[in-house]
Amino acid sequence: MWSTVTATTATTATSESRRRTLATDAPVRPADWAPFPDDPRPFRPARSDRSPAVRLRGVIGVDEDVLDWVPEERARYTRYGAIVVNTALLGGVSMALAMGTFRSDLPLAVVILVAVVWFWVVLALDSWLVSSTHGVPARNPLRVLLPRLVLSVLLGLFIAEPLLFQIFDKEIHQQIAVGNEEKVSTYKGMLVSCNPADGSDTSGRAACGKYQLKVEGSTAQLRDDIQRNTARTKAMRAQVDGINKTLNAKMATEQRECARDKWIWYGDVADVSQTCERARADSSSYRTTSKIKRYEGELENLVAKGRTLTARMEKAGDAYQPALQRSIDAKTRQRAAELDDDGILTRAHALEAVAWSDWYAGFVFVVLHLLILAVDAMPVLAKLMSGCTTYDTLLTARLDTSRRLHSDDLQVQHACATMEYEVRRHRIEQDTSERMRRLEHDHGLAQAERAALFRAELDARAARILRGD
């Protein structure tokens, strides 16, 4: 039995020794194991990007520190910034085309300056529209993006029109030319209708109020002049006839009163009566005061003018028609020169006429308009289509953390301020207690001195009494 135990013990020891040998000989690390470097590069955040793409992302307000945690989205936001810059470039080109088209008299430097300023305005607006959407919660992005989309579409409408003017430039010029020809033809037709070659009066027609011409040698004008001259001649003749009638009556009275049979004889000498002298003076005075000579001269001038006008009336027909035609042609050329062929409203109306001339032109117009609007609104549309990204989630978390840290900092500041106030209050209370103790001590000393003085005074008096002083 003892041998059995000994054999078992030996076997157990041998097995234990073998296990220890195997455990010692087994390698602790695999054969292909290599030690880690002393300063390993972390997986996140990634190394900072130093490429020019950072500037594009900076245009739309991307925080590179946050983006380093999701470097997979660097390409997305780089192209996002490129979209914003391209939209601003499109706006600058549109403004340059508009200024060059509508204000062709401006120097090239001014056009470039205005285009650069407009490029900067569009870039700033689109940059704000995009940067203000970073970190928008995914639960309600439309409420935040819809107002920005409306503003972006309005900006796109302003940018799209000059581009459409350039796309349909040839058709617009043709439409403006046809429209101006129609306006000039209508205007000339009204001039011809309201100014007949025979000189007939058209002043009674309401439509001819602003189309009537005053042409020298017009038979209508001569006819009016003859009518006015005839009326004045008639009135002057009636006036002259009235004066002559009165003058003839006065002359008849003078002849009657101064007749030979009414002479007064003084011997062989004859004299007229006083009645004759009064009649003679009356007729002479009336001839002077009535201005008959002047009126008769004016009547002769009116009669001569009437003959001249009648002669001109007979010859006016041959000279009036060429003069009328020259006046109509001059007015027509003036009207054609006054018509605008390159104004913004004129081009807008022409573009509308071209767009809705047939269904296909309207279709192309609408498609191009929507395409340009989509390109102009692409910064906000891209954000709306991409939805909430990981960068937005991280940025929202950072903003929430900053908000909480700020709140905690405010609480710490409040607690510190409260404790500082408590310390100050306690110091004031301690100072007050110390001052009260000092006052009580001083008051006790003063009372003790007074009591000592009083006792000394009593002792002195008692001593004097005992001495018999």
Automatic annotation (TrEMBL):
Record-linked InterPro entries: DUF4407 (IPR025519)
Membrane spanning stretches: 77-99, 106-125, 145-165, 359-382
Biased composition (Low complexity): 1-15
Keywords: Membrane, Transmembrane, Transmembrane helix
Sequence segments annotated as region (Disordered): 1-24
Keyword Transmembrane helix: yes
Residues making up the signal peptide according to the UniProt record: none
Protein name as catalogued: DUF4407 domain-containing protein
Gene source species: Streptomyces avermitilis (strain ATCC 31267 / DSM 46492 / JCM 5070 / NBRC 14893 / NCIMB 12804 / NRRL 8165 / MA-4680)
